[in-house]
Amino acid sequence: MTDKPGVVVTGVSGRMGQMLVREVLASDKLRLTGALERPGHAWLGHDLGEAMGGASIGVRVQDDPLECFARAQAVLDFTAPDATVAFAELTAQARAVHVIGTTGLERKHLDQIALAARHAVIVRAGNMSLGVNLLTQITKQVAAALDADWDIEIVEAHHNRKVDAPSGTALMLGEAAAEGRGVALADVSDRGRDGITGTRERGDIGFHAIRGGDIVGEHEVIFAAAGERIVLKHIASDRALFARGALRAALWGQDKAPGQYDMLDVLGMRPAK
């Protein structure tokens, strides 16, 4: 027997799924108990290690989340919004920690996740790196110090297979900037400029998405005023840093009360109220 928490990784065939698997297998604090893929996937029934091109690890790929989650203490989920909502309900039933790195979530998804968090620990973050979470806090502070004469623009770059835009991290930075200004992001967000758009609205927060090659993740927050600019930037060169953050969140959540948390909680960076 072992006292290491058991972990299920969802979407194991994807880039992030495979990275999460490798990090769990390398961990001396967690153990891999389940591997989940969508029904009909070619990996189903195969040993996960062999499916990933390596040696057998004794964990077979399944498509039944209920069975997987029943024997787990944590679920690492970087999949798609609808799948994440379905997983949240089942993870809550299993009383497992649900670590959510899924992006592209809409209000309807967030409302369902909030319901699941009444019964289980959910750690959800647009980005799980220490650097990005520091950038988020700095963005909020700078936005609070500058008035609306300083335009805010957020530029993000990712690989050419990313399906959502703006990125979850860009939106997290936008939320931080809006909070610093004391406004709602939904009221000031400017995400589309094409053609004759007219002049920039004072107080808006602009978003721009770049997609190309194998870019892991780059985020830049620009504060621009007449005659000067402040540029805050984070560059991720290794996807493993997101996986390591997810594992840290899974461990952190083991003794916490049900509810929704984020990486500021996990990293001990939550500002005092």
UniProtKB/TrEMBL annotation:
Family that this chain belongs to: Belongs to the DapB family.
Residues covered by the Dihydrodipicolinate reductase N-terminal domain: 7-128
PROSITE patterns linked to this entry: DAPB
Biological or metabolic pathway of the protein: Amino-acid biosynthesis; L-lysine biosynthesis via DAP pathway; (S)-tetrahydrodipicolinate from L-aspartate: step 4/4
InterPro entries linked to this entry: DapB_C (IPR022663), DapB_N (IPR000846), DapB_N_CS (IPR022664), DHDPR_bac (IPR023940)
Positions of NADP(+) binding: R38
Record-listed (S)-2,3,4,5-tetrahydrodipicolinate binding positions: H159, G168, T169
Protein name listed in UniProt: 4-hydroxy-tetrahydrodipicolinate reductase
Assembly and interaction partners: Homotetramer.
Positions of NAD(+) binding: G11, V12, S13, G14, R15, M16, E37, G101, T102, T103, A125, G126, N127, M128
One of the record's GO molecular function terms: 4-hydroxy-tetrahydrodipicolinate reductase
The keyword Glycoprotein belongs to this UniProt entry's keyword annotation: no
NCBIfam families found in the cross-reference section: dapB (TIGR00036)
